[in-house]
Every structure is written in C-alpha cells, then in structure tokens.
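Input/output pair, single chain:
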Amino acid sequence: GGEHEGVVEEIIAELNQRYSADRVWSASRLESYSNCPFQFFVNSALHLEPRAAPELGLDASQMGSILHKVLEETYLAVSDPLDLDQLQDALRRVSRQLFASAPREFGFRPSALWEIEQEHWLEKLEATITALTEDRNWIPFAYEQKFGLEGTPALSIEVGDEQVLVHGVIDRVDRNSDGELRVVDYKTGSSHLGQKDLERGYRLQLPIYALAARDALDLGEPVDGLYWKILNAEAGSLRLSRCGTDDAEGMDAAIEITRGHLLRILTGIRSAQFPPQKPDGGCPPYCPAAQWCWRYEPGW
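Output:
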C-alpha cells in the first residue's frame, strides 16, 4: 500500500475539489478508473500522454472516427434504414466523399496503403450494414445523439446521496414495434465487450447511454443495448437485456450494477486510491505509464 502503490492522501482535498458533484464526466473516463486506477491518475489527473513515434497514416482513434461518421451519414441518407439496397448505394456514395476529405478533416498524412485501406473498410462496412439489417425487429431512428454537449442537457444519475453528471454521444438508437428502445454503440475494436466486462466495471457506457436516452433525451424506454463490432460485422456478447442480479433482471439489473460501480469509482478517486492494476488480458499499449509503470504487463 501507500504512495508506492498509488495512494496519495496528500492531494485528497484537491481531488475532492476537482472531482466535486458538479463535474460532468464521460463514460470512458469513469471506465478508465475501473480498468486501472493508476492509468486514470496518470492520464486524467496528471494529463500525461503516451509517447509515440510519429507514424505515416492514421491511428486507431482516427480510423474509428471515420468509420463512425460513414455509418452515421449512410443511415441519414436513406428513407428506409432496413432497405439494404438503399443502404449499400448510400454507403458507397458517402464513403467516397468522406474518404476523400478524411486526411484534411482528421489530420493525417495518407500512407502508400491509403487506397487499399479504403477498399478494405468499404468491404467491412458493407458486411456490417448487411448484418445489422438482418434483425427486422429493431428499426434505427436516431443517430449521434448528444447529451451534456453543445447545449444539450447532461444525464443525471442518482448515486448514493448525490447526482452524478455525465455527457456523451449515443451512436444509434433503435425502436421496436412496441415503442421500446435499444441503444447501439459502434466499436472498431473487438475485445472487452462481454457480459463480465459490465459486471467488473470495465464497460459502463451502454447502461449509461441507455439511461441518457430515457432521462436526458426523453426518447423513450430502453430495454436493451449492445456494442456492435464494425470490423467483425457482429454484436459483442454484452446485452443489457440479459443482465441479472439477486434483485433485478435486464435493464434494471444493468442500471443497478452501474450505480454500484459509479459509487466505488467516485469514492476511490476522491480518497486518492490509485493502485496500478492489470486489467484482464493485460494492459493497453496506449497507457501513458506503459514505459515506466512497475505493474505494467502488455496485453490487448
């Protein structure tokens, strides 16, 4: 324990001031504490960034942003989001336009593989749209739904004796014939998207976004949520409708689990508890402490 294992009690007063009840969080920042408290401290509290040599081409974050934008604009361009022919035509048109402007818009210098990468991503996006239209029970109707950003109301979650404020952007919201909602979050990665990742607090984004669809955006009643793996054209195994605790099932259970993790996270941050802990599967290479953390074990 102690300062050599990430406990820095000398800054508790400052942490409580910085991370007070009026702070507006992102889901990913809250998740980062669950994954590794020390990574949260180094990245979010100290604002350190990983050292990486400059590379030609785009990084994973830029690729993810581009693919998200292609999907969003493709669905906005069609009159029937379940009509595969319409979607594929729109996808080819939208992707051509966005790929052409991507180096300038997202700030990267194309590598010699840029033309090949575009063809590869178009194939992956065609497969992912085809797979998404196979489930005819859910019809997408809202995309890139912001809350707590650009003047939209933040989500307020009751946790213990306070209200935790969260902002974010929901990639997609679907509706079924009963008017119930399903939130969908696109992921370009394929790991850490299972049921146990919510139970352990590694993935809190889906239930938070489901709450935002209901409480901050007033879109309706969510009954399910999933992560969609764009490059694999399939859903991750985490489904909010399949969650369960001793006291609740489905969405209620997912929210109960999330509230418990949020209380643990906020308590840990405000009491300056930042022990380095290796997540399941090892540490991500983008951790700012990767080159000097004494508990670092490469993974992902």
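The chain has a mean pLDDT of 92. The two ends are 27 Å apart (CA to CA).
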